[in-house]
Amino acid sequence: MRETLRVRLFFVFGGIFFLLFCSAARNLPPWGSYRGPYGDVIARVSVYERHATDVVNAINYDYRAMDTLGEEFILFTAVLGVLMLLRREQVKVNEGEKIDDRIRLSLTARASAMPALLVTVVFGFYIGLHGQLTPGGGFQAGVILASAPFLLYVCENTESFRRVTSHRALEVIEAAGAGGYAVIGLAALALGVPFLTNFLPLGTTGDVFSSGTIALISACVGFEVTAAFLLAGYAYLQEIIAGETPEE
Amino acid sequence: MIWVGAGLLILVAVTGFGVVRTRDVTGQVIAISFYGVLMSLVFFFFQAPDVALSQITVGAVALPLMIMLAISRMKYRTVRMRKRERDA
Amino acid sequence: MPHLLHLLPYLVAAWLFFCGLYGLVSSRHLVHSVICLAILQSSTYILLLGIGYRVGGVAPIFADIAPGTVTVDPVVQALMLTDVVVEAVVVALLLAMVVKAHEKSGTVSPDELRTLRG
Amino acid sequence: MTANQAFSLTPLPVVVPMAGAAVMAGLRKWLSRATVDSLGILFSAITLAVSICLLSGAVHAPMVYWFGNWHPRGSVILGIGFVVDPVSAGLTVLASSLTLLSLVFSWRLVESGSNHFQPLMLIFLAAMCGFSLTVDIFNLFVFFELMSTAAFALCGLKTAEPAPLQGSFNFAVTNTIAAFLILTGIALLYAVTGALNMAQIGLSLGGRHDSLVLFAFTLLTCGFFIKAAIVPFHLWLPDAHAVAPTSVCVLFSGLMVELGLVAVARLRFLVFAQTFLSHEPQLRAVLFGLGTLTIVIGGLMCYGEHHLKRMLAYSTICHSGIMLLAIGAGGAIGFSALMIYLVAHAFIKGGLFLGSGILLHRLRGIGEKTLFGKGRSLRWTGLLWFLGAAGLAAAPPFLTMTGEANLFHQASDVGSSWISWACLLGGSLTCAAVLRVGMHTFFGWGTEPITDEAASIGELPETDAGDRRIFWYQYLPTAICMAVPLALVLRPGWLRVASEACARFASQAYMLPLVYKGMASSGPAPVLSVANADAMWHGTVALVLAVLLACSSVFRSRIRRPLRLGAFLERRLTPLRAMQSGHPGDYVLWLTIGVATIGLANVLLFS
């Protein structure tokens, strides 16, 4: 189909779609007047029942933990898919220009990356550990932690970046994070309660080590997400870093 | 208060259209990064700090970074292939 | 005007969905298509956020507010978190496909990359 | 096994393959190919065993399982629930047996992309099981997305050619849009009901049918129709099948596509049960229209195709249309027709795909012309192939016929017996296409096959070039696939149980107390199985027509010009083929046209 025809047809039918959407929206409750009941019931009970002050994380890692298990496996599958698609076939590694690690940035710039790295890692751990109390949690922490090695790359410490991100253990960590989530659920099953039921002491509301399995699951998710983003990032970068020439 | 939120939403709508209309891919990466920041502002404004945090890490950083990496990998490939053709 | 204001996030969501579809239909670059898909996805964020919002509600985090305070809906936020992950994942996977397609055929234009006709 | 023990097994069909995939993917670099293959087979066998336990428990007493022990509080449902009734447990059994068969088939043979293939297959299995069991609509979306992600990755397994990447790109774009359509629909329903559990949504919606509910219905059904490859949303399916490895195609065509229809059925019977009470005829008209269109286009394209996997893919589209007719016919018998047909079709289509995998492995080709006359020595494969063809036509001994018998019964109840003609057309067209390929390949009869551009895609074999032997573990799954739909007919006792379970699944009055209180009320009266005489005739006629059509194509040089109907159909489908352009923009446009048209029709007909 020619592009002009395609776009014109789209304006007709896409327009109908848009109008249908708008006419449906007329029957929605007006903006700003959420009616519940699901969210309100959970907001009321979760602090008492789960000792978690961040209700969103209580939902994610407990009330609707099955969704998050699926979600973690979506991430896991996608990384598996990216690694598979970008797997190396026959490549010739050019000797001599193997790792381009010449220093172009000033030493100051390179040195200042270290504190930034430290801050990123500390911030990541903070966000991860306080997931059940304040906004944050395993997923956000994972993404922040994964960004730390990229600072190395930006500051042209390419070799150390490669050493961190191409480590064989990374895939194991990722799988352990995703599998660990399933194992936490199975542990509950082994204790005779339904899958993913909390079986740990809930602790005092507001403590770092409170709210039982929520913190544990959050940690597993954190490991998985960190490893997943690093693996995906390296999959895209490996060819450039290693200076490989594609083989036809 | 709600008018500020409404303004933000309209800005999102306009930026979204802008991202789609940007035909140059590198420009689009910058646009989508801006869009991600804007989106996380909206989330923050409408009392969703958890999502805002994820959005700023994923939508404004990880996503554009991934697109950049993909583009640079493709460019690298093209440059390498051209160079090899010249050598041959 | 107030009537339109009551519909605003839903209209923005519909608009973004439309924009994403338009971008996909008219795309000439596969990476552009992927980004349009991300825009299309963001329509669901706005829709969910608009649905769960409550005027005067605070964030559903009881670290520093009294129990029983009126909050916005926490459930949609949990759903949005899942949605954010889905977005990242879909983009990563599609980009990997685009990169690989570029390696194999040297083009990123959907018009030129049409081996599966008929 | 007591009901209580079976109860605690509920999460395992999802969790066992997930954990297995994590183990296999984590240790991928250290394990040999054979070990990963065996682990994959082991985990899917465990899943199959667990699913069978679950099914046997569910037949005695259907139950509901609350994750995290979050039981409903009054009318509000807090957690995510799995409903284990014979239908959903049966689907997990089907999913795990198909996965097991295709993993056995690809043992040590099919390219595995450095051991990525097996964990992806297990995740795909977990997603299908979760999709069948869950009663929470957002959880359904999560498993939908998990299933799609695994499918996208599996589709791009053969990265050596550019075509797979394009096929999987189109697949990924359309199915991701499907996911967002579904999510938008979920959000709209959540806005008005404040619930995510399908039972609670259904309860809260009641008989409401304003533009909002209708639009949500449109979005959800269209999203699942994209998965189910209903015309005009079908364009991704041939592309995806042409490029995916054969053993993956078994799962795609066997169950993934049909699960989209099961989800539509679940929505219709549980969520929107009362929405269309006053508009049943209009709803039937919409679904019948879509189904018939799908059958005609799928059937014609199937006959005009010369790439084996694409041909089977079009036949899946056609049969998906037949199953949509079953949903359209509605009622308990209509739903049992859908389920019976689904089971039969899954095995037959799986067997045919495995057969084409054997051909690709042995003869190094997948185009009809390449294979012409080369399969004379493959007697067993030929036999299984022709059996599969007969099964597609719903010929007498096959289970497909029982499914169609139920469908015709229900259709004549609602006064639309004409749909049996659509089924006849679809069955004979797809059967004829398969027969034609069989006659050309295994007998070398007639003139050289007509071919086309598309038939040369994916010619690269997916197996190692050195070894062309076929082992027993490749014949065995193929033979099992063909034997099951025959064997199930020989033991008709289960049909009664199945139709009772289907009647309950299709009844909101039965499902609501099951979800809320976890106890089964006395269900609706079981539906007696229907007399097969009509369908027997029908199947035989379809088979005869198919043989005639295939012969008119194969022996086209020996018959007079006006009789060359088959060859005419093979050559003159240019406008239909133009729709299948391989351009993602076109696919998205067709998708938009479909959603807008269906949405408009829904609003005009029902409000």
Tell me what you see in this structure.
The complex is a heterotetramer of chains A (248), B (88), C (118) and D (607). Chain B has 88 residues and is an all-alpha fold. Chain B is built from three helices and no strands. Chain B is elongated and about 65 Å long. The mean pLDDT of chain B is 89. Chain C has one domain: Helix Hairpins (Orthogonal Bundle), CATH 1.10.287. The radius of gyration of chain C is 20 Å and the shape is elongated. The model of chain C has no long low-confidence stretch (mean pLDDT 87). Chain D is an all-alpha fold and 607 residues long. A two-stranded antiparallel ribbon of chain D has the order 1-2. In chain D, α11 packs parallel to α13 and α12 packs antiparallel against α13. The interface between A and D is large, with 66 and 80 residues.
What's the helix and strand layout?
The complex is a heterotetramer of chains A (248), B (88), C (118) and D (607).
Chain A: H1 3-25, H2 38-50, H3 55-63, H4 65-85, E1 91-93, H5 107-129, H6 138-154, H7 158-165, H8 169-190, H9 213-242, E2 244-246
Antiparallel strand pairs in A: 1-2
Chain B: H1 2-21, H2 25-45, H3 49-87
Chain C: H1 2-26, H2 30-52, H3 74-105
Features:
heterotetramer; C: mainly alpha; Helix Hairpins; D: mainly alpha; 2 strands
Q: What is the radius of gyration of chain A?
A: 24 Å
**SS summary, helix count of chain C:** 3
**CA-based shape of chain C:** elongated
Indicate the proportion of strand residues of chain C: under 5%
CATH class of chain C, anyone? Mainly Alpha
**Termini gap of chain A:** 33 Å
Q: How would you spell out the order of helices and strands of chain A?
A: HHHHEHHHHHE
Strand content of chain A: under 5%
How confident overall, as mean pLDDT of chain A?
Answer: 83
Helix content of chain C: 55-70%
Structural class of chain C: mainly alpha
How many independent structural domains of chain C?
A: 1
| Record field, number of beta strands of chain A | 2
Instruction: Tell me the radius of gyration of chain C.
Output: 20 Å
Structural class of chain A: mainly alpha
Oligomer: heterotetramer
How would you describe the shape of chain A?
globular
Count, helices of chain A: 9
Sequence stretches where pLDDT stays below 50 over 5 or more residues of chain A: 92-97
Largest interface: A-D, 66 and 80 residues
Counting structural domains of chain A, the number is: 1
